[in-house]
Amino acid sequence: IDTTGHSASLAVARWLGGCHVATYVHYPTISMDMIQVVRNRTAQFNNSERIANSPLRSTLKLVYYRIFSYFYHIAGSSCDVIMVNSTWTRSHIANLWPSKRRVITTVYPPVDIQALTKIALNSSERNPSLIMSLAQFRPEKNHILQLEAFSILVQKLSKAPQPIKPKLVLIGGARSIEDQDRVNMLMELSVSRFRFSVPDQVEFVVNAPRAKVMSYLERAAIGLHTMKDEHFGISIVELQAAGVIPIGHYSGGVSLDIIQNGINGFLANNAEEYAKSMEQILEMSADQKL
Fold it and tell me: What is this structure's pTM?
């Protein structure tokens, strides 16, 4: 049984070990979206501008991806039982590992919300202008989009008859030197590009203990999640359970399995839409938020 994403081990266990093989796929090693990004020569966290701007490099990477997807298909064909963590993952695995003899079962990840559901939705500690983000400081989490959206929101609110002064708190883990460098870069951008006051307007909370994270979940009113094609989105479920209204990216498992736009959260595609959703939540009454 593989739950770690080491797809090559599936074929080894089946064809060399003679085992019955089961796998739980959190995130496909390669997806049709990844291939499409290279084909369209779009620069993003997993396709650098150096490659996207070069027809030759893009072609070579596309060839590599197609070869890789072929062997990934062979690995998947050795499975007897396939489980996936979301509708989005299921769709991609169905395309990459097509088979008439196997059923792909969606098994959503377990999320411990017992303590979160005890948080009072209308607690007096809830700060209606406190916005939080809960995600590891990795490039695919796209924290820059959060800063861009918050900047647009601050500019809009500054023109209101009764200006609101929101605060954004970015909470997450930094697992390596590269992650910590990314935090430092985001802090520098907050000041130099967006002209925020740190930590008065934008605060970074890195590698916080669970108790501190819980304190923000008890006080925040809005939660941001900006990763595109997130396979599921456990942190969004945690936000919802704590009574924090989430705004997620209109893609992946976030839009297919968790957030119903305008019902139990909001979905957005770009900084302007995130800012508009935040503004809409800020204007809601306490009853509307419930």
Answer: 0.91
